[in-house]
Amino acid sequence: MFCPYCKSAKTKVIDKRASEENTAIRRRRECIKCKSRFTTYEKAFLDMMVLKSSGKKQNFDRNKLKRGIAKACENRPVGSKEIERIVNDIEFQLRQMHQIEIKSKTIGDLVMESLKKVDAVAYVRFASYYKDFKNINSFKKSLG
């Protein structure tokens, strides 16, 4: 691990623990050369592919998921910690499926399920985009 301050490769771990959500290992490090301290996180990544409705495939992008949820929650009483919790829960559920390829519909359904529990307006915002309603009646029917 390189020191972000002096770029030295000589660092030592002075503390390590699981992150709050137990999704990563947090390591507090100290540079032997300049004595600066910094934190690193170690996290396991498994490649998942998202199968889009168009037939295209793309790598699962946790940040894209987070941006979509954050957009639905914009100007709503949903904090960044709650959004992070939702993203962690959805990613955990996807990984529990033990599949390399996940349909985008599966991800969208998990987001809708999560947002419905957290904030009705965020749920409706996401649903209107995700379901691509053509008219108000199809929108009403979906919410009913």
What does this structure look like?
By secondary structure, the protein is of the alpha+beta class. The chain has 2 domains: 32 residues; 95 residues. Helices cover 43% and strands 21% of the residues. The chain contains 5 helices and 6 strands. The protein has a 3-stranded antiparallel sheet with strand order 1-2-3, with no helix packed on it. α2 crosses α3 and α3 runs antiparallel to α4. The radius of gyration is 20 Å and the shape is elongated. The model has no long low-confidence stretch (mean pLDDT 89).
Task: Give the arrangement of secondary structure elements.
Blueprint: E1 11-18, E2 25-31, E3 37-42, E4 49-51, E5 57-59, H1 62-72, H2 80-96, E6 101-103, H3 104-118, H4 120-130, H5 136-143
Parallel strand pairs: 4-6
Antiparallel strand pairs: 1-2, 2-3, 4-5
Helix pairs in contact: 1-2, 1-4, 2-3, 3-4
What are its keywords?
elongated; 21% strand; 3-stranded mixed beta sheet; 3-stranded antiparallel beta sheet; 144 residues; alpha+beta; 5 helices; single chain
- Computed structural class: alpha+beta
Order of helices and strands: EEEEEHHEHHH
Distance between the termini: 53 Å
Average pLDDT metric? 89
What spatial order of strands do you see in the largest sheet? 1-2-3
Uncertain residue segments: none
Radius of gyration: 20 Å
- Total number of β-strand segments? 6
Q: So what's the overall shape? A: elongated
- Helical element count? 5
**What percentage of residues falls in helices of 4 or more residues?**
40-55%
Largest sheet composition: 3 strands, antiparallel
- The tally of structural domains comes to 2
Q: Classify the beta-strand content into a percent band.
A: 15-25%
